[in-house]
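User: Hi! I'm working on a homework problem where we have to compare a predicted structure to a textbook description. Could you give me the structure for the chain below?
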Amino acid sequence: MKILSIYPWTHISSAALMVNGQLIAAAPEERFTRQKWTTQFPIQSANWCLEQAKLKWKDLDRIVVPWNPGININSASSRWDNNISWRGEMLSNIPSNVMKAINSDAPKKMTVSFDDTKIVYLNHHDCHAASAIFVSSFKKCDYLTIDGHGEKETCLFGYYDGKKLINTNSISYPHSVGLLYGTFTDFLGFKPDNDEWKTMALASFSKNKNIYDKKMSSIYKLTKKGFELDLTYFDYYLFDRQPNFYNKKLISLFGNPRSKNEKITKKHHEIAGALQRAFTVIVFHLLKITKKNGGKSNNIVIAGGAAMNCVFNGLLENKKIYKNNFIPPWPDDLGVSIGATYLENNNLGKKSNKECKVYLGPGYSNKEIESTLKKYNLSYFKPKNINNYIATKISNGHLIGWFQNRMEFTHRALGNRSILADPRKLDTQLKVNSAVKYRETFRPFAPAVLEEKANEIFKIDKKTKVEFMEKAVFVKNEWKKKIPAVVHVDGTARVQTVNKKFNLDFYNLIEEFYKITNVPVLLNTSFNLNGEPIVMTPSDAIRTFHTCGLDTLVLQGFVIEKRLMVK
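Assistant: Happy to help. Predicted structure tokens:
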């Protein structure tokens, strides 16, 4: 069974390929087009996925889309779809009018066929759930998905009984946790649906309750089925009729919003902190509802854009609502293309490989890399012991571009397309932000740590794995001064635990740094400049290296240094 998933036009485009239950390849379109967060039709990523399995479009058994337009057109106003301006619109016009004639609930999925090609449209939140369920280690589990909105849902509750997804409840647009967070991201002068992690980083500067907590609690209420927002404070559901997600009533409650380039003050910290605490209250309430109506497995998977909130994720272990939890490396809309392949494969009664693989993007041979270096007439060399050479460079304060093997299918670099630095010096954080990433100085960086050493440094259980940087955890007091460049203002770090099975090359480098410094941690951030996607090709890496403050570039076994750049 050959299933290709394509996800265009909403948030971020991507493609994924599954063959006989094995996830073969997946990539965001932005890495090919070099346009961050592109929503273009993912033709380049889809074609690349097919090339990996030596397939053509006509060879596919299914093309799946993680969005069900049947839900949208089922209730479309006759004002918009009674007539058509182009006969190609019959593809949607006829189903829309037939659905109105039948007058039933919206379809759970749609299928369009032409010749031997079958396109299946699946519900967005079902695909979010599937993107976590089928790559977790759980045979059975509950699921909770939370995002801005899908076709109509903003949250989905349910459980997987080992055979199928059973939805128990949902919350419908415009009541949305994701868009609540997006509204205050907008209010704080950032870009909603894009910069929510900046808001989350600001929240860490305000750990204690303040005057804005009470104001925040007045704009939502918890209910037996979930929550409701007081929509009189919001404009996000008015789409193109208003310039912001918030309105004058929200301004009257919280004061003037921050403009884009305005200095960040204590007020902004406090609003962000109150928002994060409200988010935590709401989502834990939703988890309790999920468990009450769930499948009694005591396992939970969480997906959707809200599951990118690593601060909240780090609290899951302590609350003990569920014994076991899992968040995939791609919880937001990037991951629904993967979820759609798993969901359709399961719907067809097929078994899939449960392994969570993240290195699903393009990789390049040493021959291809050397050819690129020669094309640009660059000086390079191959150290006999590259790990010792680079670990020594890092220990001496050098900033490293680290390019290895296949690209990650995540927003976060996990050791194959990374910028690496020494976590032991406080000024490293400022140096990387200003000289390489060109971004706000308050934003923290992640520590990549040898898995077996993680619980010595961070407040996590010895058996806990945090392989995808999905959780912020507290750093132990005795280590805060040892690795200050990766400790956020609230004493937490968005940790990545690294083991030999997950990424041997990255593990070996960290281990070598540990031998030199007695610190089994590296600062790890994504290999990209601010406003650009993570590098994909050797050429991308070389261009980025030339245009920022990196000292050394490693392309698998090849090393380039700025003092040796041109022959």
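For your comparison, note the following. The chain has three domains: 2-68+108-125+338-347, 137-327, 366-564. Residues 266-292 form the longest helix (27 residues). Good luck with the assignment!
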